[in-house]
Write a structure and sequence with these properties.
The protein is an alpha/beta fold. About 25% of the residues lie in helices and about 20% in strands.
Length: about 500
């Protein structure tokens, strides 16, 4: 509530020639590999096949004839792999039968079984407390609207609870500031967005998640009425401890460690997961932010706890004290920079590895030695912090359970560089969940420039074998490059990444 008062006062595509085959039965053209039936074979076809096998919803029905590239009358991961190999040029025609299972051997193997392992079994992974699908969202009418409506809808299907302007909310309660607080209960698996309005004036589209609780109206941003977040019914804000650590570049770097309300250092039986984030100065309070907005990480975690979820310790690693230093520290050196960088030399020979090593070798050991934590770790960031968080996660897939890359600066490298980097990775193990987000507002040329690569990365990674079910890409046509929008999607990121 204290912070509420403060608030009040660029995708290159490869095109291949594919022969058309004709069905002997119907005479219809069969374009093997074209699972999404768009007359082209690309990474989206791989994604369709993977999601079809896993039962994950896809925008349109899959063409099962085109997708069955090995001709075994089944759609499975073998078909997805063959399409990937076709796109990469490893095979040049369909259908392919080489990957069908071979017959079982006729005699038992002659190699003697190895001895039983002498090492003790590993401990089971820490689990996240699941939250029910139904949550209650509150709206504080701090602008004294005569009528308050809530328009609930599904951003994927377009389904809505009640036609615009939505359901009129009644029976408010009055808070300590004399403001009326309205509420609405919803199943977030049916409706994932809400717009509060009075019929003529409305908020931005607000993600409705298992980490959502309260909203109030903030100032407008680019003609959009922004909503601030707060954990309804939670007065305690948690606490922040600032630790200045020696950074390899020869200066002290501030690391902000926020623990949620209820955290007791003496209670060693209660463990917390940890989310490590770039740009720590923009996470918790408007007093230190560079833009006038903040990520509202603390409000989101407290809201998630109010809904029955676990607490999360959020650790923010501050950026450099100048834009040039920030650009250097948060740019992984992956190869030749793209032409989009122009003449800005601060991105050249990026120090992203140094920053990554600092997080994994200095910050994480400090946190895990001084706080009650479990094995669940996440890494996230936005813009340059988004590309760096992604890089840290890729370099340390064994250390992080999830990655959040919001408005990531993937534009710094062209597709060829990304392909070279990703092709060297082994994605066959237990890889992190990844949440990609980017806006595409016509009012923000920077966010529009980031959009193509930011939204293409999921497909690029699928091409290199990253499981589609471990990634999601979320977009917002009206979102700009601002903490105000990253704050709105932070609850959505946490809900997905923690698999609530």
């Amino acid at each position: 509530m204290k912070k509420r008062l403060i608030s009040l006062l660029l995708c290159a595509a490869l095109v291949f020639f594919v022969p058309a085959y004709f069905s002997a039965v119907s005479g219809a053209a069969i374009l093997y590999g074209d699972a999404d039936d768009d007359e082209d074979i690309n990474v989206m076809d791989v994604t369709y096949v993977q999601r079809y096998e896993l039962g994950i919803p896809i925008p349109t029905a899959i063409n099962t004839v085109n997708a069955d590239v090995d001709g075994d009358e089944e759609i499975n991961i073998i078909d997805a792999t063959l399409i990937q190999r076709y796109i990469a040029g490893i095979i040049d025609s369909f259908p392919v039968e080489a990957m069908k299972p071979t017959e079982a051997p006729t005699q038992a193997p002659t190699i003697a079984p190895t001895e039983a392992p002498t090492e003790a079994p590993t401990e089971p992974e820490d689990e996240v407390t699941k939250i029910g699908n139904t949550i209650t969202a509150r709206f504080t009418n701090n602008k004294n609207w005569t009528t308050v409506n809530a328009y609930l809808f599904n951003s994927k299907t377009g389904a809505y609870l009640t036609k615009w302007p939505g359901k009129t909310l009644t029976n408010p309660v009055t808070n300590d500031l004399g403001e009326k607080v309205y509420s609405i209960t919803a199943d977030v698996t049916q409706y994932d967005r809400v717009i509060f309005n009075n019929g003529s004036t409305q908020t931005h589209d607000l993600p409705l998640t298992k980490a959502s609780s309260g909203y109030f109206i903030q100032k407008a941003l680019n003609n959009h009425l922004m909503a601030g977040l707060y954990p309804y019914g939670q007065e305690a804000e948690g606490s922040i401890n600032t630790v200045n650590m020696d950074y390899p570049d020869g200066y002290k770097k501030a690391v902000y460690i926020w623990t949620p309300a209820g955290y007791d250092p003496a209670d060693k039986t209660k463990k917390y997961s940890v989310l490590y984030m770039c740009d720590g100065q923009n996470l918790f309070g408007q007093a230190t932010t560079l833009s006038g907005y903040e990520w509202e990480c603390d409000e989101t975690v407290l809201s998630m706890m109010q809904n029955g979820g676990d607490g999360v310790i959020v650790v923010g690693v501050a950026c450099g004290d100048t834009n040039a230093r920030r650009n250097h520290e948060l740019t992984p050196n992956l190869g030749k920079l793209s032409s989009a960088v122009g003449g800005d030399t601060s991105y050249q020979n990026g120090g992203g590895k140094v920053f990554s090593d600092f997080v994994t070798d200095t910050v994480i050991p400090y946190v895990e030695s001084n706080y009650n934590v479990n094995s669940i770790r996440g890494i996230a960031g936005s813009s340059s912090g988004g590309i760096e968080a992604f890089y840290i996660g890729m370099e340390n897939m064994d250390k992080f359970r999830y990655i959040g890359a919001l408005s990531p600066a993937f534009i710094l490298y062209d597709r060829a560089v990304w392909d070279s980097y990703l092709s060297a990775k082994d994605f066959s193990g237990n890889v992190p969940r990844i949440y990609f987000f980017c806006g595409n507002s016509e009012k923000d040329p920077l966010e529009q420039a980031l959009y193509p690569n930011a939204t293409a990365m999921e497909g690029w990674m699928t091409t290199h074998g990253y499981p589609a079910e471990k990634m999601i890409t979320v977009t917002d046509t009206n979102a700009t490059h601002s903490e105000a929008f990253w704050a709105l999607y932070f609850p959505d990121m946490l809900s997905y990444c923690l698999d609530l």
